[in-house]
């Protein structure tokens, strides 16, 4: 709302820390953290302003490649985060993030063709479904892993139709327990059981039958639940332990998990290792202010 727009100047006047965002870009930076430099390419939309320049600089520092569409009218999107203890309040002005166009993706299609795996944040379902479907078809036709994040409870609640349109193309679908339960409510599953919802997601009709779909549901400090298409039961993975006094900020922890998991998929790691990489990166992020990762880089060490 317009009445909240003053928060950004207020935060900057208090020496707030600036970090590249939002959710999908956090995930891209997370995946890049675990991969060789310039392994990950982020595509999105920004304005022609100082904020876009700061975003680009942050990406370069992280070794992340980027290909932005620059909107002539809208400003670069912003998200202000206020932290109290372990809790957070967020205020987002999407601005240019709402202005991505399929034409830009077509103009840069060679980047898509070079990709080995594709990740889309569910938030983009509110912006350019045509762009997502183009990526879906690329993944299915060429047997590239396609990962979709549910992103937020309102996505399955208010964007059910475009979400369902992409569903046959999911090789991996990831979300937290609140997002999963929102999906269950919007699809009349009559359950809030995380194993049941994960199993339902994994066994939806699928376009690319060369890959089994995997549904991944995180639950904060509770075990991560995994369901695999055609397999009975679910797998659970305890999270990496972190003391309460070590937690600095929970902002972006889910994005970090997705980033670590995506890096594992891109490397061709086992499902167990992908989850381990995601949980390891999420634990690192929890110790940082904002959706950030420690520098100098730490080296991933398997939990077992």
From TrEMBL:
Known EC number: 2.7.1.20
Q: Which pathway is this protein engaged in?
A: Purine metabolism; AMP biosynthesis via salvage pathway; AMP from adenosine: step 1/1
Query: What Gene Ontology terms describe what this protein does at the molecular function level?
Result: adenosine kinase activity; ATP binding
Q: Which cofactor does it need?
A: Mg(2+)
**Where does the Carbohydrate kinase PfkB domain start and stop, copy by copy?**
16-297
A GO cellular component term found in this entry reads:
nucleus
Which keywords does the record carry? Answer: ATP-binding, Kinase, Magnesium, Nucleotide-binding, Purine salvage, Transferase
Instruction: Name the domain of life.
Output: Eukaryota
Q: Does the keyword ATP-binding apply?
A: yes
Kindly state which reaction or reactions the protein catalyses. Answer: adenosine + ATP = AMP + ADP + H(+)
A Gene Ontology BP annotation from the UniProt entry = purine nucleobase metabolic process
Q: Does the keyword Transcription apply?
A: no
Active site, per annotation: 255
Report the coiled-coil segments.
none
Which Pfam families does this one have? PfkB (PF00294)
Task: Output the PANTHER family linked to this UniProt entry.
Answer: ADENOSINE KINASE
Family, according to the entry, reads as follows: Belongs to the carbohydrate kinase PfkB family.
Q: What does this protein do?
A: ATP dependent phosphorylation of adenosine and other related nucleoside analogs to monophosphate derivatives.
Which protein is depicted?
Adenosine kinase
What organism does the UniProt record list as the source? Hortaea werneckii (Black yeast)
Q: What is the lineage of its organism?
A: Eukaryota, Fungi, Dikarya, Ascomycota, Pezizomycotina
């Amino acid at each position: 709302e317009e009445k909240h727009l003053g928060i950004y100047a207020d935060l900057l006047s208090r020496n707030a820390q600036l970090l590249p965002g939002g959710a999908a870009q956090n995930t891209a930076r997370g995946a890049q953290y675990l991969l060789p430099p310039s392994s990950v390419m982020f595509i999105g939309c920004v304005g022609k302003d100082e904020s876009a320049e700061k975003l680009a600089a942050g990406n370069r520092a992280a070794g992340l490649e980027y290909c932005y569409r620059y909107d002539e009218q809208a400003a670069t999107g912003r998200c202000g985060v206020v932290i109290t203890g372990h809790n957070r309040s967020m205020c987002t002005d999407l601005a240019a993030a709402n202005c991505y166009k399929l034409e830009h993706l077509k103009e840069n299609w060679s980047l898509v063709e070079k990709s080995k795996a594709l990740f889309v944040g569910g938030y983009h379902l509110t912006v350019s479904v045509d762009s997502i479907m183009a990526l879906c078809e690329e993944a299915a036709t060429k047997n590239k892993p396609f990962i979709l994040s549910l992103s937020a409870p309102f996505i399955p609640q208010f964007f059910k139709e475009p979400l369902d349109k992409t569903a046959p193309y999911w090789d991996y679908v990831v979300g937290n327990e609140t997002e999963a339960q929102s999906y269950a409510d919007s699809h009349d599953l009559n359950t809030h059981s995380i194993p049941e919802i994960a199993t339902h997601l994994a066994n939806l009709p699928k376009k690319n039958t060369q890959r089994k779909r995997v549904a991944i549901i995180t639950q904060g400090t509770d075990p991560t639940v995994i369901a695999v298409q055609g397999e009975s039961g679910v797998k659970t993975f305890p999270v990496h332990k972190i003391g309460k006094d070590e937690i600095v900020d929970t902002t972006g922890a889910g994005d970090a998990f997705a980033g670590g998991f995506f890096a594992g998929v891109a490397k061709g790691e086992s499902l167990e290792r992908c989850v381990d990489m995601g949980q390891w990166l999420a634990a690192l992020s929890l110790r940082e202010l904002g959706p950030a990762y420690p520098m100098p880089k730490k080296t991933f060490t398997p939990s077992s």
